[in-house]
Backbone:
């Protein structure tokens, strides 16, 4: 009988020792989880916004939408086609970035010019595939785009009616 009691005592002791260490382990795990959540919840607000800014920066040239804001007459700065080209278009059209037709490459421009100068101007104003609307500069006018295209065609050795004026 007494050995039975002793055994029971022993098992109670073992059980409670196991219980205590299990609880201690649980407490430790909960503490670590809580600490981790604390760290995680503090980081993203910072990191997330930085990531968003980086994403916006990366997608900007392609995703930008040109909104025609009517400007008061006289506020417009008159730029020649060459000035517009050197300011904006040169970034892609000098070296053929993103598959842009290079200035001077007649074989690349001729099939495009086949649609007519007006078609080219319209596509450059609204954007076409990797070419952003107005070359990514919404402050340019349709006339700026037209003049820049005439300049590029002229440099390429392709004459348009407008180039003769
Ligand atoms: C970010 C680079 C980039 C800039 C800046 C840029 N272009 Fe382009 N452009 C392109 C690419 C790429 C194409 C070829 C698009 C295609 O057909 O897939 C293109 C094509 C064109 C075409 C041919 C359109 C057609 O109908 O085939 C014209 C015209 C043109 N660009 C004019 C301009 C003018 C004018 C400017 C400056 C105001 C300019 N581009 C600035 C990238 C650019």
Residues:
């Amino acid at each position: 009988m007494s050995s039975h009691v002793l055994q029971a005592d022993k098992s109670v002791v073992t059980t409670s020792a196991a219980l205590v260490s299990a609880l201690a382990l649980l407490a430790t795990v909960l503490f670590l989880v809580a600490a981790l959540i604390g760290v995680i919840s503090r980081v993203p607000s910072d990191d997330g916004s930085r990531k968003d800014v980086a994403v916006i920066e990366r997608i900007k040239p392609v995703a930008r939408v040109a909104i025609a804001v009517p400007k008061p007459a006289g506020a417009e700065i008159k730029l020649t086609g060459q000035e517009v080209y050197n300011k904006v278009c040169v970034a892609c059209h000098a070296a053929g970035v993103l598959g842009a037709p290079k200035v001077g490459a007649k074989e690349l421009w001729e099939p495009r010019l086949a649609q007519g100068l007006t078609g080219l101007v319209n596509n450059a104003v609204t954007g076409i595939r990797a070419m952003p609307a107005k070359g990514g500069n919404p402050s340019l006018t349709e006339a700026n785009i037209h003049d820049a295209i005439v300049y590029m065609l002229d440099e390429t050795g392709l004459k348009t009616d407008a180039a003769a004026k």
